[in-house]
Design goal:
Elements: E1 5-13, H1 16-33, E2 36-52, E3 62-78, E4 97-101, H2 103-109
Length: 110
Amino acid sequence: MSSKMTAKLAFIAYDAKALDDYMKQIREVCAAKGVGFTVVALPTRNSLFCIPRSPFVYKPSKQHFYKRQMKRVVTMEFSNGQTLDMLSPHLHIPSTIMVHNLSRKKDAIA
């Protein structure tokens, strides 16, 4: 009888290319190790903010900045004895990507 453990991770980045490249790297490592792997792309959060160019005169002169936040939720299914720590030596998380563990929140609620 095989018991499966599931890990859910959320990856957040401001650079879409870096996030997609990292998802490809995770997919390759999981395929090599025999770990079940699914990716769900969540909606992109867009924010536009405006900063005045001059504090006193020329009030209509403003600069607009646009920020996009991409999110991916990864679900991994490990079989007998495999853990998330087994994959960590093979994966290097870039500094531009934030990782949140969603598995703990589910365990804390249940």
